[in-house]
Write a structure and sequence with these properties.
The protein is α+β, with helices and mostly antiparallel strands. It is built from seven helices and 19 strands. It starts with a strand and ends with a strand.
Length: 300
């Protein structure tokens, strides 16, 4: 079950339930027809917050696929699944062993997860240009599995963590390395520029993902494979991340956790291979599709 957020030509934002690869059921129209909460059709977070009742409704629509409610994605603009997160996106740094080593060969593996955030203004959708702002000369890419929280909670134990997961999407943790390293080791600014969080192309419910702890993924830059690994290589798996993050901190429906990246990022090559104007970045995770964005250098 895959969900997409899209913008109609009249400017109306809708949520769609994918019916094949190129069409989606307009959930706003379906909610009106079925007398469901209005927000389920035009706001992904409200739909996720609908819990099992919303999931049951979606499953019914998926089996029925009413033709009168189908929309062609070629007639709309696909946005990030959650175009404007209600909180910063939670991110995990140095969560793959090989990435720790390429970041700093002398650095020991972290003993606890390292968290930072990206603001809502950094989020962009698929097929949207990644802006190369003049403030940086070292624009980098990072493919990541992103977890979307369903039922919220605080002090969640790892054994219960999967009950709090709604689904998954792909996230590119675009990083300005010179800013990341040039502010006393403070990551936030280097990770937080406008457009530095491409996400999508859709949100896949957890029931449609074979095993989130064993998903192959690959990142290509202008056709060249730069990153290739499997989510089994995480230092801290998804349950461990949720347990650590939620300790004393409330997670809410629609919150996003980016789970880290593997080796092969631009700054890890010798010499470094940062993104260039016109590069096409393609990120594929097994079962979640492909997120595509080009790089566009902005004028000073």
């Amino acid at each position: 079950m895959k969900l997409v957020t899209f913008l109609r030509k009249d400017g109306g934002q809708r949520v769609g339930l994918m019916a094949g690869d190129s069409r989606a059921i307009d959930l706003a129209a379906a909610a009106l027809r079925d007398r469901r909460p209005h927000g389920w059709g035009d706001d992904m977070v409200q739909l996720v917050a609908g819990g099992e009742e919303a999931v049951s409704w979606l499953l019914g629509l998926a089996s029925d696929q009413p033709s009168e409610l189908l929309v062609s994605l070629s007639d709309v603009r696909v946005l990030a699944p959650i175009p404007r997160p209600r909180k910063n996106v939670f991110c995990v740094g140095l969560n793959y062993r090989d990435h720790v080593q390429e970041h700093d060969s002398s650095r020991p593996l972290p003993e606890v997860p390292i968290f930072f955030t990206k603001p809502p203004t950094s989020v962009i959708g698929p097929e949207v240009d990644i802006p190369w702002h003049p403030v940086t000369t070292q624009l980098d890419y990072e493919i990541e599995l992103a977890v979307v929280i369903g039922p919220g909670g605080k002090d969640i134990k790892a054994v219960d963590a999967w009950d709090h997961v709604w689904g998954y999407t792909i996230l590119n943790d675009v990083s300005a390395r010179d800013l990341q390293r040039g502010h006393g080791g403070q990551w936030f600014k280097g990770k937080a520029l406008d457009g530095a969080c491409p996400m999508g192309p859709w949100l896949v419910h957890k029931s449609g993902v074979r095993d989130p702890a064993d998903l192959d993924f690959v990142c290509k830059v202008s056709g060249e494979v730069r990153q290739k690994s499997n989510t089994s290589m995480m230092i801290f798996d998804v349950p461990a991340l949720i347990e650590s993050l939620s300790a004393g901190l409330t997670l809410e429906p629609g919150d996003i956790i980016a789970t880290g990246t593997c080796s092969g990022v631009g700054h890890g090559w010798d010499p470094p291979r940062f993104l260039k104007d016109g590069d096409l970045v393609e990120m594929t995770i097994e079962g979640l599709g492909t997120l595509r964005n080009s790089v566009k250098r902005l004028a000073r």
